[in-house]
Amino acid sequence: MKIKFLALTLILFFMGCAPLLTSQTPDVSSTTPAIDPSQSPDVTEQIFTPDMEDKPAAGSIVPVETQDSATEQQDPEEIEKGTFFAKTEFYGVLKANYVQFLINDLGNPNSKFNLHIGEKPLSVTFPWETKVVQPGYFFIELPPGHYKITNLSIPVGTTMATEDINIYFNVEAQKTTYGGTLKVVGTKERIKLGGVPVIKPGFEYVAEVLNQQDEGLQTYLSQFPEREDSIKVDLMRVDPIAK
Q1: Inter-residue contact 241 to 166 (CB < 8 Å)
Q2: Which of 37, 87, 107, 186 could form a cystine bridge with 92, CB 3.0-4.6 A?
Q3: ω before 197 within 30° of 0 (cis)?
Q4: What is the DSSP track for 15-69?
């Protein structure tokens, strides 16, 4: 009997506390006013779209396509070329059936070609493009830029004798550049020892550029009289080889 009375007393106690706990919980909806976005200037809404990841943030560095990269992507046939016009004279041991120059484009290290002066033998092959001209005056078309002749070679028996040389010249788009007369005198032959060891033929030489523009321009205009207004005189430059 006492146990039943105690259980009934506990039930009545908790039933009496429930309204009290409920009444102590504040009604948020009745005390907090609703926020009207149109009346809140400090509240902004930003919608993120997937393409925002591709847009740089303010103050960031954006790669810009340079003029050089645009030129590299341009079709070589669309580049407006220029004409380089000059004369060569070889004396001494360099007076051979043919003389070969290796020419580098200073603006593009991968662009090289051989200028072959004289009769190119059928048995000789070159790793780069070859332009063949005859001794004396020659005309070659090239993309505009700065060029350097780095090697000078002549045949010696079944091999080639090659020496370093520093000759610079320029080419402008849609212009004919007269580079002067390149006079190279081979003073004597010599033997070079390689590291294998290999014996290689060589030669010593003296190079200079002469300004013979009166004769040169007359020769050029006799073949291309319509190009008189596009001729520019810009002589080749020879720098000595460091010993």
Answers
A1: yes
A2: 186
A3: yes
A4: HHHHHHHHHTS--HHHHSPPP-GGG-TT-------GGGGGSPPTT-------HHH
pLDDT tens for each residue of the chain, 243 residues long? 555 555 555 555 555 544 444 444 445 444 444 445 444 444 333 333 334 344 333 332 333 333 444 444 555 556 789 999 999 999 999 998 889 999 999 999 889 998 889 876 655 555 556 777 777 899 899 999 999 999 999 988 888 899 999 999 999 999 999 999 999 999 999 888 777 777 889 999 999 999 999 999 999 999 889 888 889 999 999 998 876
Alpha-helical segments (H) within the chain: 2-23, 28-31, 67-73, 213-223
Strands 82-92 and 176-193: parallel
Cβ density class 128-141: b for 16+ within 10 Å, e for less: eeebeeeeebbebe
Tokens 């291309």 found at: 224
Contact criterion met (CB below 8 Å) for 209 and 181: yes
What count of other Cβ atoms lies within 10 Å of the Cβ of residue 176? 23
**Neighbouring C-alpha atoms within 13 Å toward the C-beta of 19:** 4
Q: Which amino acid is at 134?
A: Q
pTM above 0.85, yes or no: no
Coil, strand, or helix at residue 9?
helix
- What tokens does 42 get? 């400090």
